[in-house]
Sequence to fold (80 residues):
Amino acid sequence: MSWLVSIVIGAVVGWLAGKIMNNQQGLLMNIILGWVGSIVGNFVANLLSISSDSLVGNAALSLGGACLVLFLYRLITNKK
Fold:
């Protein structure tokens, strides 16, 4: 999938990751972190030689990356 599709999916997945991680930052911050998470998820997948040609697989990679970014964001900002 292209990076553009990954970023669009990341916006939706960012909102979902915010719900999963109980993030209280608001919708806009969840979308931004989801976009970053989408890129991180795909980057980590490439490092591990994992690829997905399906929309669901790409969304799963993006969700994992978004949750990772939210977790790291909490560690850096000391927010629970």
